Amino acid sequence: MFDKLDEIVEKYEILSQKISDPEIINNQSEWQKMMKEYSDMRPLVEKYKEYKKTKEAIEEANMLLEDNLEEDFKQLVKEELSGNKQKILKLQEELKILLLPKDPNDEKNVIVEIRGGAGGDEAALFAGDLFRMYSRYAERRRWKVEIMSSNETGVGGFKEVVFMIQGSGAYSRLKYESGVHRVQRIPVTESGGRIHTSTVTVAVLPEAEDVDVEINNNDLRIDVFRSSGNGGQSVNTTDSAVRITHLPTGLVVTCQDEKSQLKNKEKALKVLRAKLYEIEEAKRQKELAEARKSQVGTGNRNERIRTYNFPQGRVTDHRIGLTLHKLDSILDGEIDEIIDNLITVDQTEKLKNSV
Known about the structure:
By secondary structure, the chain is an alpha+beta fold.
């Protein structure tokens, strides 16, 4: 591990010189690429420097203890030595995690699809609750939310809603949200006070750029039609809604939230590109050895990942056995505790598999 770390530090120092070279600065694309690599390496290099500094402090303390010291001073050195020994073990674990291969999609924006499953209107209402939860979470992290397409119900929920979250590291945090979310509560329309169980599916897709997915225009069938539902004065008066069918895969994407046909087409293409990228990613993941797969980050949208129980005010993530009795704050976007626990378990699994 330490030979690899020394190589990374050496590369980091070379990059540090290169990004200050006027010739490279003039080549903006090359300079930005190097700056990205330099920034990505910085946390690991700084952690390794901290490790080496702590190791030197341990060596110095051991040398001091070999001398004839006064008892009070000797005790202070021993206490400092004990603290640094604990610290260096923690730093070793942190370095192992930082050395794990990075998910190339982690820094990307995401496209989130929420669809009501079993439960009719109640499922649609909970789809609206989840949309608000992720919107509030994005707001807390100063990320931008943009609705790509939506299909509202008359009771205030969504049959489906597709939206983009733009922000640094959005995918690294939200990728664990893909799957089936189950809600247990008494619907407003339920006169007998019985608890109903409904489900909502969530899919989190990394935004795909042109360089990630090449789409041949000849593979697309684009249909335009009149919008329906909310959308201002132009609804039902102009053919602004767009449906794009990707002929080779049969994927269909519809967007009608914008008044402009061009904007709807742009949004629909973004969603299509993300879906095609997800298909390619799924193929790539399948080709990896089972031993290298994480138990947490599979993102299988058929897997029941979480239950929101309203009568008990609890949320349970079934993948890691985590139960929190703070339903209201979680639905208000305070989901970092869940995500942090998922990341920790994911990293632990990857560390086991990397040995």
